Amino acid sequence: MIRFFISRMEKKYRQEMLRGKIGLLAGIFGLLTNLILFLSKLIIGLSANSVSIMADAMNSFSDSISSVLVLIGFKIASKPADKDHPYGHERFEYVTGLGVAILITFVGTQFFKTSIEKIMNPTNIHFSWITLLVLFLSIIIKLYQGIAYRYAGTKIDSQTLIANAKDSFNDVYTTSAVLFSVLIERISGLRIDGYIGFILATYITISGLLMVRDFVNELLGQRPAEKEIRQIEERLNRYPNILGYHDLLIHNYGPQKSFASVHIEVNSQWSLNQAHDVIDLIERDISKKLGVHLVCHIDPVMINSEEYVEMKQILKKVLKKLNGDFRMHDFRIRYKLMLEFDLVVPESNQLSEDKIKTEIARELRDLNKSYQLKITFDHNYLL
């Protein structure tokens, strides 16, 4: 069903509107199904006197609120950029996702007390076939809901919907556990309802905390996905007339709002117009193919200078001797007296910056190369 509606939307709406429409569809679908599950589980949980079923019902209630937050999030995230928000509103998806995660965590913690009380003072579950039927149908609905969320989330690259898909699949396992406890008590008489409720409360709480961590990282600005880095790298490698690139930085302002900057190394003998034409082509290419707004900085390289080429090779050997993971860029020879370059320091490095500089100077003196050193230490670039 969800595939049918999405295919209709793809024909009806422009690409810039499609994301918001699919997000709203997924939110409405989730809200309706979760409300049905919440009410049915709550009724049978109260009638059966089962804390695990009621815990599962409250989990469905939190999923209903999550669906409301998804609706609000996509509605606001789809708003165009304005004076106060020049990069758009797409990051609001992360805000609503964080709200969902906090809510899930709260619901989980509340059921710890109820479950412990049931363990300390166990009571029988009032068995009925309608209870089994509702729980079984709940598993089927949650399974389909997870498939629908995952399909919609993949279509529009929404981490919020994909997270909801994972939550739906996890609910399949939790409801299955509740069904198991009802059957065990019916067959053997063992009252494990409180223990199952405690396990579910633990699971819900941990899931919520992990989601809080993920969405906080998104809002703080975590490292881009390796796939995104590799895609930009692959596009840059297609330009044989540039000498190299470094200092790649990527900033995401939402799932479809990526900005990046990179330093492009070119022959110092190129004219300004020639260099501009090349980086302009790179920027337009990456924007068109990857949807990333890239800004390129030109770094001229003196590849026709024998002294430059010789000293660069010597420095590379010296750095490799100190640490095979050291990377150098922006190499310059200033006034034939000073070597100036940026050094990217890896996590494996154990030397202080002063020690690195001292060791490089010593190695150069041993080679009878008398230069002063001006080193800028980099720690946070992607390439």
TrEMBL record:
Alphabetic keyword roster: Membrane, Transmembrane, Transmembrane helix, Transport
Ranges that cross the membrane: 21-44, 94-112, 124-144, 194-212
Subcellular location as annotated: Membrane
Membrane topology: Multi-pass membrane protein
Major localisation: membrane
Positions of the Cation efflux protein cytoplasmic domain: 224-300
Cation efflux protein transmembrane domain: residues covered: 29-220
Gene3D superfamilies the record matches: Cation efflux protein transmembrane domain (1.20.1510.10), Cation efflux protein, cytoplasmic domain (3.30.70.1350)
Keyword Transmembrane helix annotated: yes
One Pfam family named in its UniProt record: Cation_efflux
Recorded family membership: Belongs to the cation diffusion facilitator (CDF) transporter (TC 2.A.4) family.
PANTHER family assigned: MITOCHONDRIAL METAL TRANSPORTER 1-RELATED
Name of the protein in question: Cation diffusion facilitator family transporter
Species the sequence originates in: Enterococcus eurekensis
